[in-house]
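Ex. 9. Protein: Dye decolorizing peroxidase/deferrochelatase/peroxidase EfeB.
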Amino acid sequence: MPERSASDRTSEPTTPATASFSRRALIASFAATAGVAGVSGALVAEAREPASPGPHADAGRRVEPFHGAHQPGIATAQQRYALFAAFDLETADPRGGRLPADRVAANFAQIMERWTVAAERLMRGEAPGPIPANVRDAPADTGIADGLAPAGLTLTFGLGPDLFDRIGRPEQRPRRLRALPAFAGDQLQAAWSGGELLVQICGDDPQVLSHAFRAIRGRTPGLARLRWSQQGFLGRFGDGTPRNLFGHKDGTANPRAGTTAFDDTVWVTAPDEPAWFSGGTYLVFRKIRMDLPKWDTSTAQQQDRSIGRRRDTGAPLSGGDEFTAPDFERAGPDGTPAIPPDSHVALVRGAPMLRRSYNYDYAFPVATGPSGGAHDHGGDGPGHSHGDHPHDHAAAGHDSYDSGTLFCAFLRDPGEFVRAQRALAESDRLNAFIRHTGSAVFAVPPGIRPGQHLAAPLFPPR
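Predicted structure tokens for Dye decolorizing peroxidase/deferrochelatase/peroxidase EfeB:
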């Protein structure tokens, strides 16, 4: 993943959900909402400013605000755990055939309204409320977070490239939102790629995350289906830069929230973007599998020269400390560049993004269903649906041990990532140790005010 330099209203008034949505749509225009590199290509980032501070000491009791100019979970200090879940809207009519676009749009508005209400409550440490259409006398909530503090929980929602055609609003699609291309060397699996809706759930207590995921998924039956989910973690890094499973610091060059560099990197302000999207951002997701046995048996010099930084300090091989700008012209003792031109740092320099990546370690996945890339819409847990290579689970080594990085980057133009990733795919030394197995991109709407839901700006009154 690239390094950065620091710089219904539909025609269905007969249903209560649709009528409720229509009333909200009339009063929730964008004007009210606005105010508003790691292992995917960059495992580490070129230094320009210190990394953002880590979680507070009282992280377990921390409550993050849900409302604001921007969604939470972006400028928020990075939490220790994350769960990413992608969904597709239901398009099949239970009576046969396909649902018309206006009906799919009404379902989309309904699910976003449900998710908004649940997210507001969950982030305050409250129960999310009764599950719609639950069986009589069933508990209103799972109870697994009873007695637990919010632990800095955030829920962040994104919209995939295909969503806008699905709901009959192609003109509202953000201009830079298109499916990522396949890059040289990609070994993408359909089981964890793409998606029309994304929920990013982050926090400092994994049980709080599990509770939030079940609350979110419990509001989707009849409206959307789970496409894939992944979960990751970080070590207790305090105020320092977290390390990936290669042992290297990951995110050194992240701009600090609240600075001009951060705003210029993350928030969308381009005049050609739809008005409702001003103050939003784009999210690039890549699942990057690491060949840890191969990495662990390479020399320290090979490892550092593949990255372009020292593992122990995070300093560039040209000298200085972690936050010293790399000097790509400086020669080493043998007269060659101290930072190899085909190192990760050299190839991705200058790609602006905010990286919020997480490690994952699924060990030896066990095949639970047919292989071949089919989406798993029915699993109950938030982990893997199946392994990358179900036919060789009994084998030893890289093909059967699944661990690596869930690369997650926020940026104002996914084209910057595409340009950097193409350079990496062609000659990055790290390619000997990684492969990209998942890929997705989403538009992340701006934040909202109390009383609104995140889909409302897409349905301005006509």
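Check your answer against this statement. The radius of gyration is 22 Å.
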